[in-house]
Amino acid sequence: MAQQGFAAVDVIRAKRDGGALTDEQVDWVIDAYTRGEVAEEQMSALLMAIFLNGMTPPEIARWTSAMIGSGIRLDLSTVGRPTVDKHSTGGVGDKISLPLAPLVAACGAAVPQLSGRGLGHTGGTLDKMESIAGWNPLLSATSMTAQLAQVGAVICAASADLAPADRKLYALRDVTSTVESIPMIAASIMSKKIAEGTDALVLDVKVGSGAFMKDRESARRLARTMVELGAAHGVSTTALLTDMSVPLGLAVGNAVEVAESLEVLAGGGPADVVELTLALATEMVALAGLDADPAEVLASGRAMDRWRAMVSAQGGDPDAPLPAPKHTRVVTAESSGVVTGMDALAVGTAAWRLGAGRARKEDAVQYAAGLLCRAKPGDAVNAGDPLFELHTDTPERFDAAIAELAGAVTIGATAAERPGIVLETVRG
Ligand code: URA
């Protein structure tokens, strides 16, 4: 739809001076930027003005609608099962999509997990899945719908015509230090999820050092904003606020996180990963209106069967050995006591330095890179005991990773009792 034209400088000035943009200004600026008519430097200035001055709820709603309208909205009505998806705001060791999608499929829903790649210290689901030999992240809308109907779960890349405005804006936010803005994160996530066509959505809003939202109140505001945007677009949405002050599980990286996910699907795995997988699955099953017990389905092995079907349907070999690192190194404890804290951001950054993530979008990741936590908060350690096992194919990366980990672990006399991983639930 052709939009009434505006001068970009007037839109920037309105926001710079603390005003609210009109619906027409929002529609125009998103459309004109997507088409290349608004220059990168102009959008950069507008993003910084939004970052500093915020947006009103009507502005956020309109910005989200305009981003959805910049591309196609998928129609999943032919899938024949209720569709429900999960989205995490991004964390360290967050491999939950891998066990969760097949688990919820085994409960009877269809899970259309359109996923992204890692940038910075947070990992990307597609990078992890690509450590499986032969696995293909690129599916057409027709293949995705067919797989959802047959297998019940798909993890794949979002096509370029799904919320293209977000694709451009996200890349610009990343290089202009404007990512951590509640209106921008809410609009970015919800435009993609609404365009994806899911009936229902569960959001995992991370709180803590390894998350974009460092404190509970900001995370709560982000969660409420997204739940309201979902409701306004007919997508039943629930958000869980979950702890990201320490890494999730023991594995951080690509292949190591696939291996840990397989442990969960086989009935084992670290307690926090299992707890969060089941908490999210329970919400998803409820929103889908299904009568299934995710814990019972996980224990039955049916989720593992769905995983194998999901991987095979996309050309992956579920039995192929995962890539092993060419070099490993161990970081040890300097004193004896109990681990009282572990900084998720430092651990995520160390895994990134080892080659698990990329510094620029076009960089390749190392599938075998990452690290294993050998102790977590609450564990007793002696001086010299292993804290981390580092994995990389390029050993010159060890020094930078070890530097990130200096001071990441605190050791004291007693560790405080840790609350459960789910801190709060925000429902629509
Ligand atoms: N994930 C997204 O998709 N967008 C954001 O802005 C932040 C996290």
Provide the descriptors you would attach to this structure in a database record:
Pyrimidine Nucleoside Phosphorylase, Chain A, domain 2; 3 domains; alpha/beta; 4-stranded antiparallel β-sheet; 4-stranded mixed β-sheet; Transferase, Pyrimidine Nucleoside Phosphorylase, Chain A, domain 3; 16 helices; Aldehyde Oxidoreductase, domain 3; binds uracil; 43% helix; 428 residues
SSE blueprint and pairings:
Elements: H1 8-16, H2 23-34, H3 40-53, H4 57-69, E1 84-88, H5 97-106, E2 111-115, H6 125-129, H7 141-150, E3 153-157, H8 164-175, H9 182-195, E4 200-207, H10 216-232, E5 236-243, E6 251-253, H11 255-265, H12 271-287, H13 294-300, H14 302-313, E7 327-332, E8 337-342, H15 344-356, E9 370-373, E10 380-381, E11 386-392, H16 398-405, E12 409-412, E13 422-427
Parallel strand pairs: 1-4, 2-3, 4-5
Antiparallel strand pairs: 5-13, 6-9, 7-11, 8-10, 8-12, 9-11
The structure holds uracil.
Provide structural commentary.
The protein is an alpha/beta fold and 428 residues long. It contains 16 helices and 13 strands. Strands 1-4-5-13 form a 4-stranded mixed β-sheet, with helices on both faces. The chain starts with 7 loop residues before the first helix and ends with a strand. Uracil (URA) binds next to helix 9.
